[in-house]
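Q: Could you write out the predicted structure for this multi-component system? I'm mainly interested in how the pieces pack against one another.
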Amino acid sequence: MKPPTLTLALLALTGTASSECSHAFLTNAAALYVAAQRDGQTASYASANITYTENDVPVNITSGILARPLKIDRATSYHDTTLCASFTELIITDPASPFVIATRTVHDQSNKTATTIHSIVSKPGDWAFNATGYIRWENLEGEWGIISPSKRDSRATIQAAGDAYFDHFNDTTVKVPWAAACARIEGGAYTDSHGYGNNTCDSAVPGGNVVRNRRYVVDEAHGVVSIFVGFPRLDGTAPDKAVPDSHLFRVEGGRIRYVHTVSACFTAGCGWVGDLPP
Ligand SMILES: *[C@@H]1O[C@H](CO)[C@@H](O)[C@H](O)[C@H]1NC(C)=O
Ligand SMILES: *[C@@H]1O[C@H](CO)[C@@H](O)[C@H](O)[C@H]1NC(C)=O
Ligand SMILES: *[C@@H]1O[C@H](CO)[C@@H](O)[C@H](O)[C@H]1NC(C)=O
Ligand SMILES: *[C@@H]1O[C@H](CO)[C@@H](O)[C@H](O)[C@H]1NC(C)=O
Ligand SMILES: *[C@@H]1O[C@H](CO)[C@@H](O)[C@H](O)[C@H]1NC(C)=O
Ligand SMILES: *[C@@H]1O[C@H](CO)[C@@H](O)[C@H](O)[C@H]1NC(C)=O
């Protein structure tokens, strides 16, 4: 009886893999994206008619950052097979023109092509920007490894942790599920620059700021949620123009252990005032 059962199970798996958005497909697509950015060749990666934004402004992909070859020092991706979406972070330390780029790519499930790409492209002058710092602190943290299946949080739990972080900016009574220790890379600054590993990410925030336009990528295996948002400008200028922002959360046991942020400003310091971190 065993061989037929095994055969049926394999057939079922094969059928699933071809009709759904597989991890292998997303991994390959992210590798193509990184190669396209390295070579500055968009045609190999995406149609010129794709929905493409940089810092929440629509751009023709053939004339955006992706058309410019960049020497990428570190590329990290996480994958969401439910949304058929990926998050990729690129660090370019080239002193002449450094960047930290956060990209959210959504693919069409049926034909497996990228349909939407949103990139936050940060550079000198943006919030706490320091590409050298970004890569230094990431190397210190090391890889956010795969979480063993028995310890994995549900998709809903992982996403709720990230949402609580942003909800707290509006309603400071919202409890953020911090891990016993939490560290945040913000633009390139780090909350745990001594590497003690006992830090907190819990900074006082003024409240009353609704963080909107949330777009998610959830990778359960890595306990990761990426949330792209429009961050309200706390100086009251251009209230219609939220700050394009990416927050990447590593959640362990339902609690936030690490945060990486990438923000693009319209004005120096993003027009943020008050006691916001760092
Ligand atoms: C892009 O869209 C334009 C206008 O709809 C169309 O004429 C053109 O063929 C499209 N190009 C590609 C590569 O799909
Ligand atoms: C983007 O630019 C390319 C090259 O100039 C052009 O072929 C394409 O139609 C443009 N797409 C849109 C949506 O304007
Ligand atoms: C894939 O499907 C999407 C959504 O239906 C469509 O916009 C896109 O043009 C398709 N791409 C290809 C290459 O067929
Ligand atoms: C950026 O980070 C690097 C590495 O931590 C540090 O040596 C450098 O002083 C930082 N630059 C600024 C402008 O803070
Ligand atoms: C913002 O917080 C207030 C309580 O301070 C709450 O009543 C309101 O629903 C919140 N708004 C959003 C959009 O979450
Ligand atoms: C973290 O550990 C260092 C070194 O032991 C200590 O000086 C520091 O006060 C600790 N910080 C917190 C927030 O506990």
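A: Regarding packing and overall arrangement: The pocket of 2-acetamido-2-deoxy-beta-D-glucopyranose (ligand 6) is lined by residues 196, 198 (CB under 6 Å).
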